[in-house]
Amino acid sequence: MSTESRPTSNEAAFERAQRVTPGGVNSPVRAFRAVGGTPRFIRRAEGAYLWDVEGQRYIDYIGSWGPMILGHGHPAVLDAVIQAARNGLSFGAPTEAEAELAEAIIAQVPTVEQLRLVSSGTEAAMSALRLARGATGRPKIIKFEGCYHGHADALLVKAGSGLATFGHPTSAGVPAEVVQHTLVLEYNNVAQLEEAFALHGPQLACVMIEPIAGNMNFVRASLPFMSRLRELCTQHGALLIFDEVMTGFRVALGGAQSVYARQIPGFRPDLSVFGKVIGGGMPLAAFGGTRDVMAQLAPLGPVYQAGTLSGNPVATACGLATLREICRPGFFDALSARTRQLAEGLQAGARAAGVPLVSECEGGMFGFFFADTLPQNYSAVMASDKDRFNRFFHAMLERGVYLAPALYEAGFVSAAHSQADLDATLQAAAEAFKA
After folding, report:
1. Is the pTM of this model over 0.90?
2. Which of 392, 421, 426, 431 has the maximal Cβ count within 10 Å?
3. How many C-beta neighbours within 10 Å does residue 198 have?
4. Residues 6 or more apart from 435 whose CB is under 8 A from it?
5. Are 70 and 326 in contact (CB under 8 A)?
6. Over the chain, what is the mean pLDDT?
7. H helices of 167-295, where?
8. Does 174 score more than 90 pLDDT?
């Protein structure tokens, strides 16, 4: 165990971390490589705020990348976690709380009849992909450029040179053979989608999509695109997998699929992947679908999946306490109103400063781009003004507002953000637009 004293500056903390951790971080985006500068090392959090090792307070719009929908340290969640920890951290045996959490999720998501708990979004997406292949007996999958589904080998793929070819690995250590069955298409491109199914339909096991892509900042799948995607999957016998790790219980109580179901009659995904909010800040995720598809999982069926810490009692208690709070009447109405005020306020402030900026939001999730129009795909996101974003990010950070340190990441509002917090954020933005 290190006996070195605790660092008193972010620079010192970063230098120390780089000696023992690759890049000084345990998840790459934390390193500030996209925006430059020194990452802030956080010592504590409460409500809507973070404090770094230097004692600087920030209004937090990352929320641990989405889970902290109630804010940090909500009393009901803390009480549930403490009680669960007193009873035991992990058993390696089933608990009643696992079924209770599953029931709470299923009650809000009608497309899910059964689900399995795991420990991370990557694990959930990887398992859903394997389940789809096992259930259909088919090898090939479709994903979309700019959508992130965790760091499983088959999903770390960039687009190929054309629809007749498949993707190429985006990470060293992933053999080309591993991604030979992964086809990468342009988000919101209906014509390309139709051509892909025409070419590969009988071999397609599934299509995996972020319905609102939070790893392109905030890009929403259009209604015509999503409607046609559902039709093609049904027509060709491929499973439609909604990756709601980010959007589940964040953009609406029933997730993004409930948003689309209100606008597309009869719409439903075949499998759904959840994370972040359902764990309340603890390592917990899940994947689920119809009873017949889920019956393909071991121990009932031939598709193997397992995890030592899956459904561990502390994470389960944290997630269940969080879901109880967000299910209270009026919760999402209030959260949506706060988020809309922030998104619209940023756009109005930029316009007043003569800066091109567009914003989007749903529920407690938002995004903005330094551009004239909302991007509809990854290429358009990349064409927005990255340099201006980087300047804006640092100007906001200097003014005590913590946004995601990359152009490509969505932001999150919590129930703990007050009117005063929103006012302070928009005032900081008015100054930062001039930076």
Report:
1. yes
2. 392
3. 11
4. 391, 392, 394, 395
5. yes
6. 95
7. 190-200, 223-236, 255-261, 291-294
8. no
